Amino acid sequence: LGRFAVRSTYDANVVAGGLARWGANDRVVAELDRLAEAALAGTLPGRVSRVDRTESRVVTGDAELRCDDGGHGPLAVGDYVLVDDRGARAAVRLRLERSSCLTRSTGTGSVPQVLAANLDEVFITVPADQPFDAGRLERLLTVAGDSGAATRVVITKHDLDDGAVVESAARAVAAGVVCTALSVRTGSGLAELAAAIGPGRTVALVGTSGAGKSSLINALLGDDRLLVGAVRSADGKGRHTTSWRELVALPGAGVVIDTPGIRSLGLWLDAGGLDDTFADVLDLAANCRFSDCTHDREPGCAVRDAVTAGTLDPRRLASYDKLLAEAEMVAARNDERLARARGRRWQALEREGRARARRR
Ligand SMILES: Nc1nc2c(ncn2[C@@H]2O[C@H](COP(=O)(O)OP(=O)(O)O)[C@@H](O)[C@H]2O)c(=O)[nH]1
Ligand SMILES: [Mg+2]
Ligand SMILES: [Zn+2]
């Protein structure tokens, strides 16, 4: 259908064919199908491929439209939407509820940012050419674990000397999490990873700049569509040749979302979100004498006993404490905001009440 064609009927086959290429599974296609046929006739189903400050890009099968959020923002890469492209400017008319999403606190803080939506799996990249940072991996595991998608650790650049060392260090921190080691240089591990991104599946890549995310996507694509950032030696930071987060459809398979240029992943969850990442600490804590033990000075603390006995790494306990404090701060900030909103609502109700009393 042309850009200005009048769509009086909705062709489910066009949708199924078009959006399946962009990771939509049968459930999503059926849902968009139902909506576009009924209340929102004439709109196009699509998926958000890029989010910029002033506009978003939406892929609709073959085309990529520049779109207003139509009041449904902020949108995130991976959102499924219905778009009306019949006016002067295409606009989103509906955003499908997210089945999962990768969310972070933006630091300045009051609003969480959704980095990617509707994910089946989050790949946490850990490069073999950077000093292994256990705390960073624990943070990423926590954020990914809270997304509602499955989590996998991907050791990149495994061809390098430290490949095996970094791999075993990462496996120790991410106990119970699927781990794949690979190299785009030698091609080892690539098939295993590609198999995890089958048709109708969406995967997001997270990890530091220079971890090899773009190289990996290129290897999966089989060409150089994403430019690999040259690492500046002065500050070690990668140059961001990909200027937006991007949704990439792999030929004959699912979809990968790159998240370039994300310096930090502040937690946006409550304390319970740490339970999976620190299951070992929590198992120990169940044996502390006091149920509200802070593992600081209390007598009968099984967690501190484990550190003394050498069965729990003190670094890990410190990392847990740090992330717990961060999660509690977010929760407190949320409570504060909630209280303020509640206060405003009461004030409004009171004003209304006074106005009504005056009218009587
Ligand atoms: N030796 C080796 N180097 C790699 C591999 N994958 C990526 N690199 C290099 O790592 C650097 C950063 O890669 P890039 O894909 O831009 O990382 P990104 O910032 O996470 O997207 C580049 O210089 C790549 O050539 C690999 O499997 N082996
Ligand atoms: Mg990159
Ligand atoms: Zn304790």
Short description, anyone?
The protein has 360 residues and is an alpha/beta fold. It is 33% helix and 20% strand.
Alpha-beta content class: alpha/beta
Tally of DSSP β-strands? 13
Stretches where pLDDT is under 50 for at least 5 consecutive residues are 1-13, 229-245
Distance between the termini: 60 Å
Mean pLDDT: 85
The outline comes out as: flat
Q: How does the major sheet shape up?
A: 6 strands, mixed
Beta percentage is 15-25%
Give me the oligomer status. Answer: single chain
The value of Rg in angstroms is 24 Å
Number of helices: 9
**Helicity, as a percent range:** 25-40%
Describe the secondary-structure layout.
Blueprint (H helix, E strand, L loop, with lengths): L11 H9 L5 H12 L6 E8 L4 E5 L2 E6 L11 E5 L5 E6 L5 E5 L6 E6 L3 E7 L6 H12 L4 E7 L6 H11 L4 E4 L8 H6 L6 E5 L6 H9 L24 E4 L5 E4 L20 H7 L16 H8 L4 H46 L1
Parallel strand pairs: 3-5, 8-9, 8-11, 9-10, 11-13
Antiparallel strand pairs: 1-2, 1-4, 2-3, 4-5, 6-7, 12-13
Bound molecules: guanosine-5'-diphosphate, magnesium ion and zinc ion.
Zinc ion binds next to helix 8.
Keywords:
six-stranded mixed β-sheet, 20% strand, binds zinc ion, 9 helices, binds guanosine-5'-diphosphate, five-stranded mixed beta barrel, alpha/beta, binds magnesium ion, 33% helix, flat, 360 residues
What does this structure look like?
This protein is α/β, with parallel strands linked by helices and 360 residues long. 33% of the residues lie in helices and 20% in strands. The protein has 9 helices and 13 strands. It has helices at residues 12-20, 26-37, 134-145, 163-173, 190-195, 213-221, 279-285, 302-309, 314-359; strands at 44-51, 56-60, 63-68, 80-84, 90-95, 101-105, 112-117, 121-127, 150-156, 178-181, 202-206, 246-249, 255-258. Strands 10-9-8-11-13-12 form a 6-stranded mixed β-sheet, sandwiched between helices. Strands 1-2-3-5-4 form a 5-stranded mixed β-barrel. A hairpin with a 2-residue loop joins strand 2 (56-60) and strand 3. The radius of gyration is 24 Å and the shape is flat. The N and C termini lie far apart (60 Å). 38% of the residues are buried. The protein binds guanosine-5'-diphosphate, magnesium ion and zinc ion.
